[in-house]
Amino acid sequence: MSCACPTLLPIHLIFGKPEQVGISSERLERLDSVMQGFIDNGELAGFVTLIARHGHIVQFKTYGYRDLENQASMEKDALFRLYSMTKPVTCTAMMILVEEGEFLLSDPISKYLPQFKNRRVLIEEKGGEIVTVPAESEITIQQLATHTSGLAYEISKDISPTLFKKVRNKDVYNPNHTIEELAEFSASLPLLHQPGTHWQYCDASMDLIACLVEVISGQKYGDFLHERIFKPLKMNDTAYAAPEENWDRVACLYEVKDGKLVRNLYHEDYYKLNIRQGGGDNLVSSTMDYARFAQMLANGGELEGVRILSPQSVKRMSTDLIRNEKNVTPWHNDRAFGFGLGVSVVKDPAYMENLSSVGTYGWSGYARTYFFIDPKEDVIGVFMTQRLSPNPVPWWHIFTNLVYQAIVD
């Protein structure tokens, strides 16, 4: 019998037998053959999966290679670039400060970052002139976390060739930029929409939350995360850079060219820099570290006697907070998913590609990392790989289905 009440969930993450927590070992074995098929077909170089129910890890396996060219096998302690799986961590940091009374989610960000006062909204570029109108309201902190702020690093060339070129020349995803620099750059751009009217996925919003944490805490963002989240949760492999002695643990980064997996050297060494401590990306972590973070959320904010957040804060994070905002992000299936604070939330299984329960929440990363938490079934899943480029096969959904089909009570 599963329990959706976070205050009653176990507070430890331990290894256990599948049958102890209502999972069939025989059905769980289906995962091995299907996952290995992704390696054999040349779709992925290697990956790690972890499944836990009621706080018991019932599956933690490696597949394929950490370094395909040198035939170095994937290891359980391999390190992965999280990219957008940094965002749930950022929203956790934000909620820590909310709980301490430092600000309200309804506060305008200009209260703490005054360069965002009196924003203007882009209408068009006409004859080389950028046409804007005043923003009808201030951007709130919650709008940053839910991607409804109107901010964006990406501006269509069709709307404004001048701003498109400005953003491209800035190379905003280069980790040599600090989040302070990117905050100033964001402030120099008009909003794409009136605040609170559109849902548009945006790294800029999360970078501003990281800046907000720095301003209020007086700490560098990475230091705050280490002291308030990673160290208490024993996430010893999670940071904005891997130390040199761990570089040989970092999984190589691949993309597809001419139908084959090849190394992406442009992005591959970002894990060495530790410069851009972004709110939306750049963290490096291991599968077990991220599972500990996910289990903390699944437990209602606590793991092994260490409380990071209250159950009410986790509930706010994992509640669909989107109401009438228009979705303008083509790949976001807004019939199936809503959005909370840094995480998507399943709202209608009729439009789902997998067997997730209503209320399941989680997020993914640019290199195809993925995690989910299902409060109803009390199960978490973590899928770690490193592949850029469009994915022809929905690995996440197949992995998720293989988790759910193994649950038998």
What does this protein structure show overall?
The chain is of the alpha+beta class and 409 residues long. Helix content is 27%, strand content 20%.
Features of this protein?
two-stranded antiparallel sheet, 409 residues, nine-stranded mixed beta sheet, single chain, 12 helices, alpha+beta, 19 strands, globular
**Largest sheet: number of strands, sense, barrel closure:** 9 strands, mixed
Mass-distribution shape: globular
What's the helical proportion of residues?
25-40%
- Total DSSP E strands: 19
- Note the beta-strand portion: 15-25%
What gap, in angstroms, lies between the N and C termini? 7 Å
What is the gist of this entry?
With 409 residues, this protein is of the alpha+beta class. It has helices at residues 25-28, 30-40, 87-99, 141-145, 161-170, 179-187, 203-217, 221-230, 265-268, 287-298, 311-317, 395-405; strands at 14-15, 46-53, 56-67, 72-73, 79-81, 120-126, 129-134, 198-199, 254-257, 260-263, 284-286, 302-303, 306-307, 326-327, 337-339, 344-346, 361-364, 370-374, 379-385. Strands 1, 2, 3, 4, 15, 16, 17, 18 and 19 form a nine-stranded mixed beta sheet that branches. Strands 5-11 form a two-stranded antiparallel sheet.
